[in-house]
Amino acid sequence: MKLSIIIPAHNEEERLPPVLDSYARYYVDRFGPEVEIIVVVNYSSDHTLEVTKAFAETHPVVIVVNEPKKVGKGGAVLLGLRQAKGDLIGFVDADGSTAPEAFDDMVKSMGDAGCVIASRWMKESVVEPKQPLMRRVMSRCFNLFVRVMFGLKITDTQCGAKVFRKHAIDEIISRLGLTNWAFDVDMLFQTRRAGYTIREVPTVWRDRAGSKIHYVASSLDMILALVRLRLIYSPFNWVVEIYNSIARRLMQMKG
Questions:
Q1: What is the CATH architecture of 3-254?
Q2: For a disulfide at 13, which of 45, 46, 63, 203, Cβ 3.0-4.6 Å?
Q3: Residue 49 CB partners (closer than 8 Å, separation 6+)
């Protein structure tokens, strides 16, 4: 198997079918039966599971994994990683922001790297429409926080398109423990710790209507997740249990 593409999907009954159609057509033409598209349906209350299964019936390259419990995007990607058989394993968002041609640019750029990630912040990248100022500011603050705390000199850890070599995934997967906001940072941090090169490439990224992320409301969650991750990989990992207790109380207060 040459390529595995994982698509985590939560309540994506409307946006997912055209994405599956475009990816299946493009990659079957490119790889034939040597590609698999693994859709991990997570905690969906709409008809995402049904429409994905219906699509898979006529497209053998599509594999459906259903996880009814809420595990977040990171947990869904982990489920896909454990199932994937490709020499290269990537994941992409279900909203279609990254077209199959843009994803293929990453595959072609692998070279001797262990991981290739798309960046919306390289000068050659195309982002349409231009993101609101608040969202851009928050993205840059988050990136600065990641650089300072983890030493990852990467412009865009959070872009939803990434490709890894299978042997890199096999080496790091047992150490991946965080889902949700810190998952991408955890993957990249573990990849670098394992000695693999991480290559960033410019991308074409088109924002799609219907995003379920509220950026201002989620900023605290993002920072808390990064702090927890940094504590885990530090001499102060014993603080994590205390931190978890405080974080649970904060989440209860928010609820």
A1: Alpha-Beta Complex (3.90)
A2: 46
A3: 41, 64, 66
